[in-house]
Structure formats: structure tokens, C-alpha cells
């Protein structure tokens, strides 16, 4: 079976630091989420994942762009670039990197849930003809996505996989499972449009979008969870998973 | 199919499967089934099952030929070609065809053919209504949603009268009710526990009494999926069986399911086929087999089959290997032991 063969030392560069696994869950209300999934060219993509994780067939990337209107740190926008994968038997998304526009939120998400983030501008604009997300760092656009001609969808039809975030933890370098709960109130699906993706700016050199698959937009409550599982990045998740909430 | 996919490896696996089909006939098994999958590296390289089944038909004379299941999506298999190929198989096998229908559950396949995920369920419904007419009517004109045709005679006609038994694969809960309403067999491909299977089977048999058959005959059978590795040493069989089951489960879980890639009401579940392991005790406890699996000594296998029989299941389809984790010799010895020790415990044999 396919197994990630990314270099652990390279993947670990710039990994966030989690000082404790004892973080409480956090509910965020009325979160707007645009998710775009796209197949990527296969050559070399196994190196985007650590050996703990398995690539999907075909390999795919998801971009998740969220607008959070209210949080303990004020409103913020968050964009993530994730590689679809499997941890053992479970579907997951391995976070390559994210962009956020609120320093306090960035600090909390990094130190409590292991999000690898950089500062930038995140915009999510909802129109009747499209939902568009743009992300810029140092005034340079690094992502421009849209769901064109969105149509209503049953809220139960949208599926989100949990994050695997690579972080320095009290147990050492670990993949941190962040299985956020989405309670969707409203959902739409549109045609996926990818106008700009700067792979290098997302620490994702080698990711070459090839076949846009889907774009969905939802509004609802997102609950960032208590941490339950972590996993060594260098061995298969079957062997390297540890429980941290006991 | 184990990596790397050299021509020799694929040839070897296909040869083993053909030899196992011949042996199955010799030993008294009822049916050999071949699935249809596309692009599913390692999991299944059976992209042209009608070719494999034609070879099985040519090398056997009694065992029934399970074409299960044909993907009923127009860009993958045009309905006229499906009817022609199935009838041809029925003719060359002298009326031994069992005909399964499906719509595919993975994005790898649906996306690979750039099919519309929203339409697959509707397309399937159109197929199961029109295929029997193509087999039964001398000539047919049809104007539908997923295809149309001017008046033509679809040839050849099947040997079985009025046509081969129809099945649908049941992956998502609720599809067994679709099967019952249409008067077609429920070909279980997702493993369920006894209680859930009993509930589904009871409801299927109740509902099919009221069906509006899509074909010229009703197929009211329920078949389930199981895993077979039979060995005199139960502990050894369970250990080897767990490896076999685990390998299948791992590959199955790694499929890229449509629900994960494309939000739609047409795919409500991830469609995992592998049985769930029972809840484990403390760390270090031995891994246990899911209930009802036919992985063990003959006594264990007989008990498992009797349990399925007691809840109304008519047939069990056994997977006998996955990614060649069992050697061909292990598979054939398992089949022989099953035939000699297990089959006599059941009245039909």
C-alpha cells in the first residue's frame, strides 16, 4: 500500500509548539467555511506526507477557508492547505500550512491545537453567483478560489475530515489529531474554480492542481475539540498512535 | 493485487483465480462471482470481469457465473453493451449467469470516468428497468433520461427464460429496500453484524412480497459477504484469517469514497465494506474476529454459517483472498477442507 515518504526533519521545520494536551474544546458560532477539493498530479506527492500517513488514490488537496465572526480573540479569517490522506483506517487531512489574519487567534490555534500558521490577509466573500476566497501574504495573492453558481445542499451532505497537525508536543514531534465538529445550518455546492495557488507559499512545493472536484460552502457551529489522539510521524499510525485525554 | 504491478504478477493472480474457480466447481460451490472495479490499485484489478467470467464459463460446466456487479453508469458501461455482454455470457455458459448491478461508490472510479455523482442512483434505476426489456423484447425503442435508442433488436437473447436473475449490490443501508421494491436480489457486499443483517433481511422479505418487478421474474434471495479461511487448527486459521481480513479492510478503508470528495445527497455513507472489529478490552488483549466471519476450523465455520442461515440469509459469498496474503495453496486447501467438512453439515449439499 502507499505510504508517505516525506522527510521528517524537513517537515518539522517551523512546526508549532504545544506545551500541554489539556486544552478545552471551543465552540465557534456562525462560522462560514468554503472547502475546495482538487486532485493533484501524482508524481512526488507521497513526499508531502510523513511515513505515518497514507496518500489517497488519486492524491488530492483540500483548501479550507473560514471566516469566524466571533471568538475569544475577536473575529478572524483562517485558510488551510491540506493533503488528503489516511491515518490507519481513517480519512484525514494533513495540514501543510495555514494563513490567519489575527495574531491572538494564531497564537491560540498554534499552541493549543498545533496549527502551523503564518500571518496574512484572508477574505471570504459570499455572493449569489459565487463564493470567493482570496488569501494574500505580504500583499501578494497566494490563493484565489471560488464556488461558482452555488446551489442549496442538505447540510448533512457536506463531509469534513479531521486535521493531522504536525507539532512539537510534550511527547516530542507528533501528529496532532484535530477532529473539529461541524454542525452545519446551511450548505451550498458550486463549481470549483481555482484561479491562483502558489504552492511554495503554502509549504507545498510539488502540489500541482490537476482536476478541480468540488466546492462547498457552509455556515454553522464549529467546535474545536479537546485533544484525544496524537501520533508519531515516523511510523505507521497503527503503531504510533497515543491517547492523550486520559 | 500486490505491488509492484508487473505483468507477471497480474497474470499470476488471474491464473490463481481461474484455478480457484475450476476447483470451486469440482468441490460443489454454487457460484463464482467477479466484481467490476476501475483504477483501484491493489484493491481490485478486475476491470473487465466479463472477460474473466467468459474464461470461467469456458473452463467449467456447472457452476453459476456471477457477473457482480456491473457498474450501471452510462459513461462506464452503455446499457446496450451491458445487455449484449450479459446475454452473451448467458449463452456461452448455457444459462448459468447471475447478473448483478451497481453504481460505484468511489471517487477514484466515478471521477476517473468523469461521471456525474448526482446521477448514478437515477441511472441505475433506469438500467434495471430497461435491461430486462432488452433481453425479453424482440425489438425495442426507448426514450429515457440517461440514454435513448431507436427501434432495434438487442442481440443475442439470454438462454435463461425470461432472463438471468437480477441482483443489486447493497453497500449503503436502505438499498436492500430498493432491491425488494423492484423484485431483485440483495447482493450484500458490506459486512453487517447478525442483528443488523437480521433486521434488513426480515424487512427485505416482507417488502418483496409487495414488489412491482422490474423484470420478467422475481429474484427474492439475500446474499451476504463473508471471508473464508478454513483450517484444521482454529488458532492458526484465525491468525491467518485476521491477516487476510485486515489486509482487505486496510485497502478498503483507503479507497477514496465519493462522499469524501464530492458533497451530494446521492452518497450518504463512506461505503466501507469491511466488518468492524469487536470492541477491544485492555491494551495487550488478543485481537478478536468480527462476529460471523468464517475464519477458523470447520466447527467454527459451520456455526457461523448456521447463524447466518438462522436469520434468513439465503446465500453467502466468500472472499477467499486479498492482495495474495494467503498463498494459492492455502486458498485451495481451505476450499477443499470447507467442501469436505463444512458442506455436509448443510442439507442442500
Radius of gyration of chain A: 17 Å
Biggest beta-sheet profile of chain B? 8 strands, parallel
Rg of chain B computed from alpha carbons, rounded to a whole number of angstroms: 20 Å
Q: Separation of termini of chain A?
A: 32 Å
Count of DSSP E strands of chain A? 15
**Amount of helix of chain B:** 40-55%
Figure out the total of helices of chain A: 3
Q: Quick one: overall form of chain A?
A: globular
Distance between the termini of chain B: 33 Å
Q: What letter string, H or E per element, gives the SSE order of chain B? A: HEHEHEHHEEEHEHEHHEHEH
User: Which series of helices and strands of chain A comes N to C?
Assistant: HEEEEEHEEEEEEEEEHE
Q: Main sheet of chain A, how many strands, which sense, barrel?
A: 15 strands, mixed
Strand content of chain B: 15-25%
The pLDDT mean of chain B sits at: 93
Could you explain how this protein is built, in words?
The complex is a heterodimer of chains A (246) and B (349). With 246 residues, chain A is mainly β. In chain A, 8% of the residues lie in helices and 54% in strands. Chain A contains three helices and 15 strands. Chain A has a 15-stranded mixed β-sheet that branches. In chain A, strand 3 (60-68) and strand 4 form a beta hairpin. Chain A is globular. Chain B is an alpha/beta fold. Helix content of chain B is 41%, strand content 15%. Chain B is built from eleven helices and ten strands. In chain B, the strands form two sheets. In chain B, strands 1, 2, 3, 6, 7, 8, 9 and 10 form an eight-stranded parallel β-sheet that branches. A two-stranded antiparallel sheet of chain B has the order 4-5. In chain B, helix 1 packs across helix 2 and helix 2 packs parallel to helix 3. Chain B is globular, with a radius of gyration of 20 Å. The model of chain B is unreliable at 280-285 (pLDDT under 50). Chains A and B meet through strand 13 of A and helix 4, helix 8 and helix 9 of B.
Task: Tell me the layout of helices and strands.
The complex is a heterodimer of chains A (246) and B (349).
Chain A: H1 8-12, E1 26-40, E2 54-55, E3 60-68, E4 76-87, E5 90-100, H2 103-113, E6 117-119, E7 121-126, E8 130-137, E9 140-153, E10 162-169, E11 172-178, E12 181-197, E13 209-224, E14 229-231, H3 237-240, E15 241-243
Parallel strand pairs in A: 5-6, 5-10
Antiparallel strand pairs in A: 1-3, 1-13, 2-4, 3-4, 4-5, 7-8, 8-9, 9-12, 10-11, 11-14, 12-13, 14-15
Chain B: H1 7-27, E1 31-34, H2 49-59, E2 64-71, H3 79-92, E3 97-102, H4 107-112, H5 120-136, E4 140-143, E5 148-152, E6 166-170, H6 175-182, E7 185-188, H7 194-208, E8 222-230, H8 234-253, H9 258-261, E9 294-296, H10 298-310, E10 315-319, H11 328-342
Parallel strand pairs in B: 1-2, 2-3, 3-6, 6-7, 7-8, 8-9, 8-10
Antiparallel strand pairs in B: 4-5
Helix pairs in contact in B: 1-2, 1-11, 2-3, 3-5, 6-7, 10-11
